[in-house]
Specification:
- The complex is a heterodimer of chains A (253) and B (392).
- Chain A has 253 residues and is an alpha/beta fold.
- Chain A has a single domain, classed as 3-Layer(aba) Sandwich (Rossmann fold), CATH 3.40.50.300.
- Chain A is 38% helix and 24% strand.
- In chain A, helix 6 packs across helix 7.
- Chain A is globular, with a radius of gyration of 19 Å.
- In chain B, 72% of the residues lie in helices and 2% in strands.
- In chain B, helix 2 packs antiparallel against helix 8.
- The chains are: A alpha/beta (253), B mainly alpha (392).
Chain lengths: 253, 392
C-alpha cells in the first residue's frame, strides 16, 4: 500500500466534525481543527470549553460519539487505545504535573525513552551508551542535570513541569500535546518554558493549551480559541484577542 | 536469568537476608538430624515442621509483595493459588498411597472408593508421576491467574474492585472444593499421606529435607523477585503502581505488565502451597477461605510492602506470634489481636517494619555524610567560610 496515495490530508493532526457528550452535556460540539507538520498552536478558552476533553480524544482516553480524528493523514485515532497512540508518536503533558514521584529524575526519563516497551524487552533491558547520552541531553535541556538522582517527588512544582516536558522529549513524539505548562510557575520560569517550547518546536509539532496570555503572546504562534466545545476564533494573538466574541466569553471587557 | 541481572539485584539487606535463610536451611536440618536429642542445640522435629510452615508462608508473602508492593495489585485471593499448588502436590501424595489405604484400592484414593466411584476421573491422570505433579504445581495456579488476569486487567478492573473479585474467586473455589462430587475429597480434603518420592513423609530425614528445600525455594523465589524488581521492568511496575494512566500515555501496555507479574506471583504461591502440604500432612478446602488470603496480606503490611525482605519477615513474625498466642490462654482473642496489629501498623508504621528501618537508616546515613563533610571542612580552614557562604 502506498502511504502517499492514501493520505486524506497533509495535516499532522486533523479533526473534523467531532462530537462528544457526557450524560447529555455536549463537551465537544462539531469541533474541527487542523495542525500542519512542524506547527506550534496555542489553544485558549474559558474553563469547560473542552480543551482537555479534546486532548483526551486525541490521546485515546475518550472516544468521540462522531467525527473524524486523523493523525499524520492516515491513522484513525478513534479506533486506537492510549498505548497504541503513544507508540504512534503522540506525547502528552498533563495539566497537573504527573511524574513518577517515587523514582529518580533520571529513571523518569529512562521510562519515557521511546525504546522497546515490551515486557520481555524491559525485563532483559541493559542500558546502552546511546540511551544514557540521550538522557544526559534531555537533562541539560530541562536544566535538571544536578537533580538527576533526586526523587521526582522532591522537586519543586516548576521543576516537575519541566521534568514532564523532558519526559516528552525523551519520548520524542511527532506531536506533543502540552496542557497548561506554566500553571503555578514564576515569571522567570514561564519565560524559560516559552523558550524551551520554541526550541522543541524546531523539531516537533506542538499543541499547547494555556490560560496565561502573556505566555501565549511570548510563544508568538497561531492561536485557536475554544468555547463550548467548538472553535470560536482562530488567527494571530492580536486577531483573536480583538475578536468581539472572544472578549465577551473569555478575556472580559 | 542472566548474571548481570543477579549482581545488579543484590544490595546489603538482600545479601543479609539470603545469608540468614541459607544458614537456617543448612543448620536447622543438620542440628535436627546429627545432634543427640538431649542436646541444647538440637532442634526438635516438631519445630522443624513448624518453621517449615513459616518458610512456605514467607514464599507466599513474597509473591504477594511482588504484585502489591511493586505493582499496586492488591490480591485478596492469593490463598487460592497457594491452595491449588497444595492440591496438585496432595494429589501426587494420594496416588502414592496405593494399596496402603483403608480400602486397599491400588488406583483410587479412599474417598473415591467411599463414594462408590468406579474409575479415576480424567483430571487425576498423571498425578502418579512426580514430574507431572510438580509441573501442575506451576501450571494450574499460573493458568488460572493468567485467565483471571487477562479478563480483569484488559477490562481495566483496578483497585478495590479487583480486590473484591479476587475474594470472590477464592470463595468460589472454596465452595467448589467443598463438594464431594468435585473429586478432591470434599471437606476432608486430601490427607493420610504415606510417602514422597519413596521417602516416608513422617520420617525425620524427610522433614529435614523438606525444610531445606523450602528454604531453597524461598531463596530462589527471592532472587527471581529481586531480578524482576531491579530490572527496567521493575521501574515500569512502580510507574504503574504510582500513576497507571500516565504509564499508558508513555506507550506501555499496562495490562501485559500486570498479567506478567500476576502470573509469576501465582506460580510462586503455588510452589509455596506444594511445599506446605507434605509438611503439614493435609490439604483441605479451608485453605481457600477468604480470611487466609487477607491474613497473608497483613503479613506483608506488617513486614513492609515493596521491600521483599519485609514480606518474608512479616510472614514469620506474625505466624510466630500466632503460634505463641493461640497456644495459651489468649487463644480466643487471636483474631482481635491480628486486627489490632493491622490497625496499629497502618496508623503507626505505614511502611512496615523493614520500610521504617530503611527510612531511618537512610536518614542517619545522610546525617553522617553531612557531619563528615562538616568536620572535613572544619579541619580545612580555607574551605569553611566558602561552604558557609554557599549555604547562606
Amino acid at each position: 500500500m502506498n502511504v502517499m496515495d492514501t493520505r486524506a490530508t497533509s495535516a499532522m493532526l486533523y479533526l473534523d466534525g467531532v462530537h462528544v457528550s457526557f450524560d447529555g452535556f455536549h463537551a465537544i460540539n462539531n469541533l474541527s481543527l487542523t495542525l500542519e507538520p512542524g506547527e506550534m498552536r496555542a489553544i485558549i478558552g474559558p474553563n469547560g470549553a473542552g480543551k482537555t476533553t479534546m486532548m483526551d480524544i486525541i490521546t485515546g482516553k475518550t472516544k468521540p460519539d462522531e467525527g473524524t480524528v486523523l493523525f499524520d493523514g492516515v491513522t484513525d485515532l478513534t479506533r486506537l487505545d492510549e498505548t497504541r497512540i503513544a507508540e504512534l508518536g503522540i506525547g502528552r503533558k498533563f495539566q497537573k504535573p504527573t511524574v513518577f514521584e517515587s523514582q529518580t529524575v533520571q529513571d523518569n526519563l529512562l521510562l519515557a525513552l521511546n525504546v522497546d516497551h515490551s515486557v520481555r524487552g524491559t525485563l532483559f533491558w541493559r542500558g546502552s551508551k546511546a540511551e544514557s547520552e540521550r538522557i544526559d541531553k534531555v537533562l541539560e535541556t530541562i536544566r535538571l542535570t544536578d537533580a538527576r538522582n533526586r526523587l521526582a517527588g522532591s522537586l519543586s512544582h516548576g521543576q516537575k513541569q519541566w521534568l514532564e516536558i523532558g519526559m516528552l522529549l525523551a519520548q520524542d513524539p511527532k506531536l506533543l500535546l502540552v496542557d497548561e505548562p506554566v500553571a503555578g510557575m514564576t515569571d522567570v520560569e514561564t519565560h524559560l518554558t516559552a523558550e524551551l517550547l520554541k526550541e522543541i518546536n524546531k523539531t516537533h509539532t506542538v499543541m499547547v493549551v494555556e490560560h496565561d496570555m502573556t505566555f501565549v503572546r511570548e510563544l508568538g504562534v497561531k492561536v485557536t480559541c475554544l468555547h463550548e466545545g467548538t472553535v470560536l476564533a482562530e488567527g494571530t494573538i492580536d486577531q483573536v484577542s480583538s475578536n468581539e466574541r472572544v472578549i465577551e466569553v473569555y478575556l472580559g471587557r | 536469568m542472566t548474571p548481570h541481572m543477579l549482581t545488579r539485584s543484590l544490595d546489603r539487606s538482600a545479601t543479609i537476608f539470603l545469608a540468614i535463610v541459607a544458614a537456617c536451611g543448612i543448620l536447622i536440618p543438620l542440628s535436627n538430624l546429627l545432634l543427640p536429642a538431649n542436646s541444647f542445640l538440637q532442634v526438635p522435629t516438631y519445630l522443624v515442621a513448624l518453621w517449615g510452615k513459616y518458610v512456605c508462608y514467607a514464599i507466599l508473602a513474597l509473591s504477594i509483595d511482588l504484585i502489591w508492593g511493586y505493582c499496586g495489585i492488591l490480591s485478596l485471593g492469593h490463598g487460592a493459588f497457594f491452595a491449588l499448588g497444595g492440591y496438585a502436590m496432595g494429589m501426587y501424595l494420594m496416588r502414592q498411597i496405593g494399596t496402603r489405604g483403608v480400602y486397599g484400592n491400588p488406583i483410587l484414593p479412599d474417598f473415591m472408593v467411599f463414594l462408590n466411584w468406579q474409575k479415576l476421573p480424567w483430571y487425576w491422570y498423571g498425578f502418579d508421576m512426580f514430574w507431572f505433579a510438580a509441573l501442575m504445581v506451576l501450571v494450574v495456579p499460573g493458568l488460572l491467574a493468567f485467565c483471571f488476569g487477562w479478563l480483569a486487567f484488559r477490562s481495566r478492573v483496578t483497585g478495590v474492585y479487583l480486590s473484591i473479585i479476587t475474594q470472590a474467586m477464592t470463595y468460589a473455589l472454596l465452595l467448589a472444593f467443598f463438594r464431594n462430587d468435585f473429586g478432591f475429597g470434599g471437606n476432608n480434603g486430601l490427607t493420610d499421606f504415606k510417602d514422597i518420592l519413596g521417602f516416608n513423609v513422617q520420617a525425620e530425614g524427610t522433614r529435614a529435607a523438606l525444610f531445606a528445600l523450602s528454604c531453597l525455594a524461598l531463596i530462589v523465589g527471592f532472587l527471581i523477585c529481586r531480578a524482576i524488581v531491579s530490572s527496567k521492568l521493575g521501574k515500569v511496575l512502580i510507574a504503574v503502581r504510582d500513576a497507571e494512566s500516565r504509564t499508558r500515555f508513555l506507550g506501555y501496555r499496562v495490562e501485559s505488565y500486570k498479567l506478567f507479574v500476576f502470573t509469576v506471583s501465582a506460580c510462586m504461591a503455588g510452589v509455596a502451597g506444594a511445599l506446605y502440604v507434605p509438611q503439614v500432612g493435609i490439604i483441605n478446602p479451608s485453605e481457600f477461605a477468604p480470611g487466609n488470603s487477607i491474613e497473608a496480606v497483613i503479613w506483608v503490611a506488617v513486614g513492609g510492602r515493596g521491600t521483599l525482605v519485609g514480606a518474608a519477615l512479616g510472614a514469620v513474625v506474625v505466624n510466630y506470634a500466632k503460634t505463641f498466642f493461640t497456644s495459651g490462654v489468649l487463644a480466643p482473642y487471636w483474631l482481635f489481636m491480628l486486627g489490632a496489629l493491622f490497625i496499629l501498623v497502618t496508623l503507626l508504621l505505614p511502611k512496615g517494619i523493614v520500610g521504617t528501618f530503611n527510612a531511618w537508616w537512610d536518614q542517619s546515613k545522610e546525617k553522617r555524610t553531612a557531619a563528615a563533610i562538616a568536620s572535613a571542612a572544619a579541619e580545612d580552614g580555607v574551605t569553611e567560610p566558602k561552604m558557609a557562604e554557599e549555604r547562606s
